[in-house]
Design brief:
- This protein is an all-alpha fold.
- It has one domain.
- Helix content is 83%, strand content 0%.
- The chain is built from 6 helices and no strands.
- Helix 1 runs antiparallel to helix 3 and helix 1 crosses helix 4.
- The longest helix is centred in the N-terminal third of the chain and has 40 residues.
- The chain is elongated.
- The protein starts with a helix and ends with a helix.
Length: 122
C-alpha cells in the first residue's frame, strides 16, 4: 500500500521527463549519424596523416550505447517486444532509471565537449 503513492509519483516524473529525454535523444541520434560519417572520413589516408589521435571515437560509441538503452521503447513494434519492454519500463519507472541514466550519460558529454568538437571539426 505504501509503494502505490511512490510509484504514482515516479510515473508522473517519468513521463514528465520523457519528453525532455526524447528531445535530447534525437540529438544523440544525430551524433550517431555524424559518428558514422566521421569514421568513414577518418579512414581517408590524407586525414589519417593529418590527425594522428582519433581515440575519441570509442568514447562517443559508449555514449551512443547508453542512448540506445534509454531509447529502447522505440523498438516496441510488436507484442513480443512489448512483453519484454513492459517489465523493463516498470522497473525504469519504479527507480527513475531512465532519468538517472540520461543524466549520468549527459554530464560526461558536457565534460567532453572539446572532444566532440574535435570530432566534428576535423
Amino acid at each position: 500500500m505504501f509503494l502505490i503513492p511512490i510509484f504514482s509519483l515516479n510515473v508522473f516524473f517519468h513521463y514528465k521527463n520523457k519528453g525532455n529525454i526524447n528531445y535530447y535523444l534525437n540529438g544523440v541520434n544525430q551524433l550517431s549519424k555524424s559518428l558514422k560519417v566521421s569514421k568513414k572520413l577518418a579512414d581517408n589516408p590524407e586525414i589519417k596523416a593529418h590527425y594522428k589521435e582519433l581515440s575519441f571515437f570509442k568514447r562517443i560509441d559508449l555514449i551512443k550505447f547508453k542512448a540506445e538503452f534509454i531509447g529502447f521503447d522505440r523498438y516496441t513494434k510488436n507484442e513480443y517486444t512489448f512483453l519484454l519492454w513492459f517489465p523493463i519500463e516498470l522497473i525504469k519507472i519504479q527507480f527513475n532509471l531512465e532519468y538517472i541514466i540520461f543524466l549520468a550519460s549527459s554530464i560526461p558529454l558536457l565534460k567532453k565537449r572539446r572532444v566532440l568538437k574535435k570530432c566534428f571539426f576535423l
